[in-house]
UniProtKB/TrEMBL annotation:
This is CPBP family intramembrane metalloprotease. Pfam families: Rce1-like (PF02517). One of its GO terms (molecular function) is endopeptidase activity. GO terms for biological process: CAAX-box protein maturation; proteolysis. Keywords: Hydrolase, Membrane, Metalloprotease, Protease, Transmembrane, Transmembrane helix. Residues 132-218 form the CAAX prenyl protease 2/Lysostaphin resistance protein A-like domain. It comes from Caviibacterium pharyngocola. The chain crosses the membrane at residues 12-34, 54-72, 84-107, 127-145, 150-172, 178-198, 205-227.
Amino acid sequence: MPKQNDLTFVDLLFLCVVFFGAPIFFSLLGFLQLEQSGAELATNLDFSDSDNKSSIYLELVSLSVAAIYLYWRKFDFHRLHLSLDRYTLLLTLALILIAGGITQIFYDVTLPTVEIVEEEIAQPIEYSSYFSLSLILFSLLNGFYEEVFFLGLAFAVSKNRLPYVLIFSLFVRFSFHTYQGITSALGITLFGLIFLAFRFRLTNLVPFMLAHAFFDVFGLGLPLWLIP
């Protein structure tokens, strides 16, 4: 049986449920709780080592299910371009600066950051405890996990369906971040839109995954809080 050239929209729907069904459901619950509290954005977004390890396990299970499905569908995995070369780190840095800079401006304009900044200044960060191994490992895996769907599998459809699939992908990216608040989720959707724009010029997914992992560790935007 020949390899499947293009994924169908039904394939993408199934894979979306595998990748993001549970996150979308729990994000909706978190958003409803946020609405009931009257808050505009979630302030307690810290994850413990246990949370990171559980997320790693769940994402590995989901990736295994997706891989089995794609193998059954005779998907050509060579369509997912993953490679390391001399340009990888430079492209990663460029994505961090551009996507981080634009989303930083968006958040500065739309979010009430004064109280949050004052709280962060009043409580010095313990870097040794913040940058845990579980956080680094989860961030690397999550960067692969999300972008292999949004920038890899979503682009493995026929050209006439691609515009509709990309709109759908932005909605999905928004949906499982609503637990942070609508404004924050819109910022993450803007981040996804920036990545999509670059994806039309860059076929290698690794720089996108590494940049995503960077933002998972330091937060979306520019990590100015690292500057003393």
